[in-house]
Design goal:
Elements: E1 7-11, E2 17-22, E3 27-30, E4 35-38, E5 42-48, H1 57-70, E6 76-82, E7 88-93, E8 100-104, E9 111-114, E10 119-123, E11 127-132, H2 136-141, E12 147-152, E13 156-160, E14 165-170, E15 175-178, E16 183-187, E17 191-196, H3 200-205, E18 211-216, E19 219-224, H4 228-238, H5 255-260
Length: 266
């Protein structure tokens, strides 16, 4: 497998986007809905699956697309092709506040395992598939089910995270305990499992769930500080309830509180 060699630059701090520079006839694949902008001579083409093996026939294409459905992604991806005689640029944006992580698969042994829905874009030739868990506990309680995404090949790929990103290098046998939703991804040598927190008070009143992930080295792990599910829960909890009630700063004082905190809407 030989992926196209693409150049890139990441812009922004908390709302990032990645700009890909394509040579003539080079291609980048991306998730539907991640496109931001592109030069005039780049053409878009909708493809089944990730397009990493377009010579596999209709059955192979359907199988590739079916794997994407299992990871919660669309059947289709979008390919952006530079039809110009010179270089051209196309940009892709993160779907929510956070960081974009560039992954050079040649530095990770050709494979990187990541959370579902974190893939943003990649060079043509990179395969985006599924990683099945062989452990029952991880599948039932891991928050991501039996399936995570795997990105394979020898090119550049990009995944996105929520909030601030942390990189941890684990030595042989070293263990890192993480909230299950805070994992962005890890290298293929990292052993990933689920552990029960334990204790009645922790389980009932801790507010952190019943399980956390244990990541055992050696390998590299990437962690996000604000998973989208956590952000969505906070937004839903603060949204106005039936009857117009709100859990904002001024909610204890009703309409008067809204006036005091600057919310003067009627």
């Amino acid at each position: 497998m030989t992926a196209h060699e693409i150049d890139y630059q990441i812009f922004g701090e908390e709302m990032q986007y990645v700009e890909i520079e394509l040579d003539p006839q080079e291609i980048v694949i991306a998730e539907a809905g991640s496109f931001m902008m592109m030069d005039n001579n780049i053409q878009m083409q909708t493809i089944f699956g990730d397009g990493s093996d377009q010579q596999s026939g209709i059955f192979g294409k359907l199988l590739s697309a079916g794997k994407r459905v299992l990871t919660g992604e669309s059947l289709f991806m979008t390919a952006f092709i530079n039809q110009n005689f010179g270089k051209a640029k196309v940009s892709f944006a993160s779907p929510y506040p956070g960081k974009i992580l560039p992954i050079d698969l040649t530095q990770f042994g050709g494979k990187f395992i990541c959370q579902k829905s974190s893939f943003l874009c990649a060079a043509k030739g990179v395969a985006v598939g599924i990683e099945f868990s062989k452990k029952l506990g991880r599948g039932l309680f891991g928050g991501e089910g039996f399936i995570m995404q795997k990105i394979e090949g020898d090119g550049m790929a990009f995944v996105h995270s929520g909030g601030t990103m942390a990189k941890k290098e684990l030595g042989p046998g070293e263990i890192l305990k993480v909230d299950t939703g805070c994992i962005i991804g890890f290298t293929q040598d990292v052993d990933y499992d689920i552990e029960f927190i334990g204790g009645i008070r922790n389980s009932v009143f801790g507010g952190e769930g019943l399980f956390y992930a244990t990541l055992r080295g050696p390998g590299t792990v990437y962690i996000q500080s604000l998973p989208f599910s956590r952000l969505a829960d906070r937004i839903i909890a603060s949204a106005p309830k039936a009857g117009g009630e709100s859990r904002g700063e001024g909610s204890l004082l009703g309409g008067l509180g809204n006036l005091l905190d600057g919310d003067n809407r009627f």
